[in-house]
Each structure stands twice: as structure tokens, then as C-alpha cells.
Amino acid sequence: MICIQLSSALSVFVIEHLGAAGTTWLRMCFGAVFVVIIVRPSLRSIRRADVSILLALGTVTGCMTTMLLSAAERIPLGTAVAIEFLGPLTVAALTSRRSRSLIWPALALVGVVLLTEPWNGSIDPLGVGFALIAGVCWGLYNLLTQRVGDRFSGITGLAITIPIAAVVTSVFGAPQVIGGELDWWMLGALAGIALLTPVVAFGLEMLALKRLTQTAFGTLLSIEPAFGVLIGLIVLSQLPTPLQLLGVAVVIVAGAAAQRGGGRSSAAPSGHPETGPITAIGDGVRRDQDSTSHPERTEHAMPRQQSVDIRHATIADAGTVAQLLHDFNSEFQTPTPSADEFATRFRVLLGRDDVLVLLAQHGNTPAIGFALLTLRPTPYGDGPLAQLEELYVRPALRDAGIGSALLRAAIDDVVRRGAIELHINVDEIDTDTRRFYERHGFVNIQPGEDYRMLCYLRELSSGTRPQVA
């Protein structure tokens, strides 16, 4: 927060020469160079489904920064930040799923009125408008950053979206720089500012949003208007009136009261999974042992508690299991045999003692998810090793605890069969799925060691690679 406000305040001195859009563009250009050098992102990790959200986040990031600097050019920094804060505050209220939470954005609006003092006629309406647009972008930025942060490990997503932001802001920024009064000291200043924001500030926000709900993150952001006022006073000598200070206090109180929760809805204590009746609150999970992983979660809403029945699949369920597996692969554009080909194989596999398929369903409704496990002998114990091959829940029913229920039932079943370990394969970049399994007691580091276990594979000529059906 301090980095963002300090970089905005320092940018004001450059805006006088290059304009808000030009200043933003050069900041994003320097930021893109720095973050790419630091992270060295692999473009091969980008799936087709990721492109739209990466483009959206890059665009929103560039627009948010441009609009905030445009506002700071016309109105005090603290006032601009307080108005902009209406965006994430509204997101926090809406995602809390409590109707009374909408009171807080309304209260914050009262604080903004006190800050702008429209009755004095001194406020710049264009500056307020820019700040409001920045607020919309800020709210979208938080939502998209969380999605991108969950999809890519560390700040890899940032190393992709900041270059996108640099390209987007060049549309208006490049002409301002070309027609402005560019001097060498500005390049040095903007390089330093870019390290603050976007590199350090946005990177830390992405890491924070991996662990926090939108509402909890919005709560932490509630003190940002105060930092805006403080930095504006120290750096820009913008002295607020007592009424404006009251307005800032009202905005902060509204932001802090909007949500009192802290962790992501998917959070749960790590360790051995719970035992008992198969009724759960938690995540579904999407995983794939193929070379491309696919997170199941497509939103981060609070989970809905639902009871689910788990039963063993029989040979008669071969067609059902086949269709679920085919839909699973098709949803994420993974090469897959046809459902009929799967069904033929499952009629054989479901008759074996070393293959286990669990189906999830509500009462007599069609199956809504499944877990596929195999068992193999090992000389390291009297029991077999179990491998979780697939775990899938229908898209419309995710985030309802069905994936957790299937996983617990699978663990209980292989334990009864004497299995000594349960193995899974998860792609390193699939942070959401990794977090799901870690919460259920799975590790990729042996006790007492300090290095991770890896899985290697080699395609064999005796088999044929499936095509998308």
C-alpha cells in the first residue's frame, strides 16, 4: 500500500512533463523489463483458456494506473485514493453475501463527499471521474489478480500481465511521451518508481490474494486512503482540512467493517483429512496427470454445504464413468478417447480388484463426480500402493465439498484395502490443486528432506496417443 501511494505521489512530478498516460506507459515498460528478468516466465505454461483473463488483467492494470494518475493530477492524492477505494470496497461487500454489507459502501460514499467538499465548488469533476473509473478498475483488478495468482505459481502471472499493460497503455502514453518534455532524469526516476509499482507492490498483492478472500483483502485495503493522505502531505505538501480528515476516517471505518473474515473460502487446516460421514464443506478439485494441469475452481465463492452420497461403481456404471471422464478431458481440451472407447475399457477395468472407481451423487440423481484409483504391489510394504488417477466434479457443482468428500472416501477405501501410500500427480503451476491436496495431508517433500519429489514420464511406442474426440 505504501509503495503504491509513494509511487503515485512521485509520479506527479513527472506527469507535469509527460502527462498521466505517458508516465504510466513508461512505468509499465520499465516494470515489464524488470519483472520478466526476475521471473523469466514460460509462455508454454499459458493455456488457451488463460489468454482472456491474462489480457483482461493486463488491460485493467494499465487503465487503473492511468486513471489514478490522471485523478492525482487534478485532485489531492488522498481524495483520489479514497474515491478509488469505493471499487474494491463494493467488491468486498458484494462477495460477502450479506445484504447488510452494502451499508458500508454507502457509508464510504458519505466519507468521499466529506473529502471532496462539493459545496465549496473547488473540486475538479474530471478528477473525480477519473478516480471513479480507477475504482472500477481496482475492483476488477483484485478479482482478476486472484484468479491469475491461483493459476500461475509465484508472480509468474505478473510477468505476463505487466507487459500486456505496457502495450495497452502505449496507445495513449506513447504520443504523450513523444510530444512531451522527456529528460534523462525522468527515465531514472520512472525506473525506480516502476520497481515500487508495479513490480514490488503488485507482486505482493498477487501473493496476498492467493491466501485471502476478496472481502478480507478489501478489509486490509481500508487503510489505503490514510496512506494516500499521509504520502500526499509528506511528498506533495497537500494539507487536508479537518472535514477531509473526518471523511478519510469514515472511509476507513466503512472498509474495515465491510468484512471481518480473513482466509480464502478454500482454506482449511492441513493435515490428515477428516473422517466420518461423507458430508463436507470445501472445494471440488480438478486435476490431471497429463502434461497440462487444469484447476477445477472457476470462482472463489463461499462454499455451499451439501450432503453427497458416495458409492462404488460397478461394471453396469461403465458408461457413466466413461462419460464423466470424457467430459472431464473435453472441458479442458485435453486429448481424449471417445466416451464409447472409455466405456469399453471400463467394462474390463471395473471387474478388476486393483481398480477402484467411486461415484458421487445426490440421492437417485445421475452421478456428478468420480474418483478413479488403481493399486499396485510394492516390496516396501505388505499392502499395495494406491494411485489417484482422476478426481472430477461437474462444473456447476464445484465449491460444494464434493471433491473433498470423494477424496476422503477414496482414502478410507484404500486404507481398508491395506494400502500403505496414496500417490497423485499434480503440475507444479497448478497452485490451486496443489493447495487442495496439501490441505488434505499430501506432501511433495519427504519428512526430513529439503527437496521436492518429481514425477518423470516417457511415452512408449506400444501405445497410441489419444486425439480430442
Question: Can you put this structure into words, describing what you see?
Answer:
The chain is of the alpha+beta class. Helices cover 55% and strands 7% of the residues. The chain is built from 15 helices and 7 strands. The protein has helices at residues 2-39, 48-72, 77-84, 86-95, 103-116, 125-151, 156-179, 184-209, 214-220, 224-236, 242-257, 318-331, 339-349, 402-416, 431-439; strands spanning 279-280, 306-307, 309-312, 355-361, 369-376, 385-393, 421-423. It has a 5-stranded mixed β-sheet with strand order 3-4-5-6-7. Helix 2 (48-72) packs antiparallel against helix 6 (125-151) and helix 10 (224-236) packs antiparallel against helix 11.
Return the string of H and E elements. HHHHHHHHHHHEEEHHEEEHEH
Structural class: alpha+beta
CA(first)-CA(last) distance: 49 Å
Helical percentage: 40-55%
- Strands across the major sheet, in which order? 3-4-5-6-7
Largest sheet: 5 strands, mixed
How many DSSP H or I helices?
15
Strand content is 5-15%
- Please give the number of β-strands: 7
Spatial shape = elongated
Q: Low-confidence stretches at least 5 residues in length (pLDDT < 50)?
A: 261-305
**Overall average pLDDT:** 82
- Rounded to an integer in angstroms, the radius of gyration calculated over CA atoms is 26 Å
